[in-house]
From TrEMBL:
Name this polypeptide is given: FtsK/SpoIIIE domain-containing protein
Residue ranges annotated for the FtsK domain, each copy included: 167-356
UniProt lineage: Bacteria, Bacillati, Actinomycetota, Actinomycetes, Kitasatosporales
UniProt source species: Streptomyces ortus
Pfam family, one: FtsK_SpoIIIE
Binding residues annotated for ATP, in chain numbering: G186, A187, N188, H189, S190, G191, K192, S193
Amino acid sequence: MTNLSVWLEATGAVAGAGGLGYAKVRAPRVYWSLVGMPVTWGRFVLSYRSTMDVCGLTVQPSGLRAFMTRNVARREVQPVPPKIRRVRGTSTGLRVTLRLPAGLEPADLIATSERLRHAWGVYSVTVAETKPGYVELRMTGYDVLRRVRMPRKARPRDMVVPVALREDGTAFERDYRKAPMALTLGANHSGKSMYQRNLIKGLAQLPVALVGIDCKRGVEQTAYVPRLSALATTPDESASLLAVLVAEMEDRFDQLRQHGVSDMWELPAELRPVPVVVLVDEVAELFLISAKKDEERRERIVTALIRLAQMARSVGIYLEICGQRFGSDLGKGATMLRAQLTGRVVHRVNDKQTAEMGLNDVAPDAVPVASLIPMERPGTAVAADSSGGWSKIRTPDTPRDEVAAICREFAHLVPDFPALKPFRPYVPAAMPAVSPPLGKARPVTS
Ligand SMILES: Nc1ncnc2c1ncn2[C@@H]1O[C@H](COP(=O)(O)OP(=O)(O)OP(=O)(O)O)[C@@H](O)[C@H]1O
């Protein structure tokens, strides 16, 4: 009854809005649920066998099965497609779980995904291996990255934060325990700050210490100060803050040794130190030197970043570094640091070389995809990690005020962290909706 009334309400809405054609363009989610999904489901079921046959995705049945078909059923033995284990409709498409017969592998389906897409008239077909011998065909009924809506079930938990949507309709999650150190690259206005904003939105709700380094005088991160344990807005402050984090890392190593474990997560919860996520906006500012005297500071910053990137994972200190480019042109230490940042997100770039800096060592076949991200789609990126897998993603368009409000709501989660106290930003009683003008953005207290 409830389903019927929801359906009637929705169809009424569609009719009121000017019909199905209008809904297809303006409300693709509603159109998919009401029209696209039943049509595609039917088409899929009716044409499954013949489609798999013409796509070369069938194999000869096993000896016993062939014998039974020939001698018991008295039918001609036909090649068989993968067995359908489950078909499930979602708000963005259809998910089909297949059991692969001997002789077929996931790569065979990946190679034909374009033909499957045409055969079933869907927007995209992605193939994911879910466990050995099983694959999931993820079909999307429309371009889910045009207006991003995160799946309702995607919630921050443990050290996992949903941050964007993949083109197959699933959530792209930043998992700090799987890829502890990450690099986000992209040209001006490509959506890097939006990516960090979505990250902060999720991280703010978890029991972690958030440390900001924003040498663009804090223009982006000042809005989040109620939830930050520390904020540095100049290279000098950043150098001091990073030195404190390196000392904290060393203290935590001593603690691990005392308890005879090699990873913070092996400690009982009551002894485990709070995880720390260090968010660096525009890393080039930390590498720049305008006078000879800055060289020594730069050296300290780069050495601290490399040490943290190499070792801090096991003590729960994670780096999230963001910049326009990240290559040898930044100077000594840059490529060494980059090699340690194994989580990669590359937004629109101005040249292929920048895409190569971000992806060549982890997912070289994703370089052309990153090089072709259009300007009209800010927030679109290629996300890859050292496992060689990659996917095209887009962040939701989350207003800064919304994230600032979440930071205020979860301010009570700022952990007690004496070493970071000198860097704790001043939190005004009423935070302005947007950052204060340049030059006044850095209220510091001790
Ligand atoms: N996912 C998105 N959906 C819609 N609009 C977006 C998205 N991501 C970013 N934008 C818009 O694109 C513009 C640039 O975004 P953002 O400031 O995040 O880019 P940036 O790479 O950090 O730029 P800069 O290097 O200049 O700081 C902003 O107006 C933002 O609102």
